[in-house]
C-alpha cells in the first residue's frame, strides 16, 4: 500500500529499508524520502517503521547451537 503519495513510497519499501539496516524513522526517511514533501503521511510512516523494528528479532538458537558448551 502507498504510504507517501508525494514520493510514491510503499509500506513494503519502508519495511525493506528497516530490513536493510535502517534503525530509526529518521534513517528510513533519509533513505526513502517518505514525508519529505507535504508530511501528511508522517504518522502512518512512523507506525510502519515502528512495527517493522518491533518485528526484527534475533534468533538465539542460531547464534548458540545446542552443541556449544560453556567452559
What features would you describe in this structure?
- The protein starts with a strand and ends in an 8-residue tail after the last helix.
- The protein has 71 residues and is mainly alpha-helical.
- It has 4 helices and 2 strands, in the order E-E-H-H-H-H.
- Helix 1 packs across helix 3.
- The chain has a single domain, classed as Orthogonal Bundle (Arc Repressor Mutant, subunit A).
- Belongs to the Bfd family.
- It holds the Pfam family Fer2_BFD.
- One of its GO terms (molecular function) is 2 iron, 2 sulfur cluster binding.
- Its cofactor is [2Fe-2S] cluster.
CATH fold description: Arc Repressor Mutant, subunit A
- Number of helical segments? 4
Secondary-structure class: mainly alpha
Please give the domain count: 1
Rounded to an integer, what's the Rg over CA atoms? 16 Å
* Unreliable stretches covering 5 or more consecutive residues: none
Summarize the topology.
Layout: E1 2-4, E2 9-10, H1 11-19, H2 25-32, H3 42-55, H4 60-63
Antiparallel strand pairs: 1-2
Helix pairs in contact: 1-3
Amino acid at each position: 500500500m502507498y504510504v507517501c503519495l508525494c514520493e510514491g513510497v510503499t509500506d513494503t519499501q519502508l519495511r525493506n529499508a528497516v530490513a536493510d539496516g535502517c534503525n530509526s524513522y529518521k534513517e528510513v526517511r533519509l533513505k526513502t524520502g517518505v514525508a519529505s514533501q507535504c508530511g501528511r503521511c508522517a504518522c502512518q510512516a512512523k507506525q510502519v517503521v515502528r512495527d517493522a523494528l518491533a518485528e526484527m528479532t534475533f534468533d538465539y538458537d542460531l547464534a548458540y547451537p545446542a552443541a556449544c558448551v560453556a567452559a
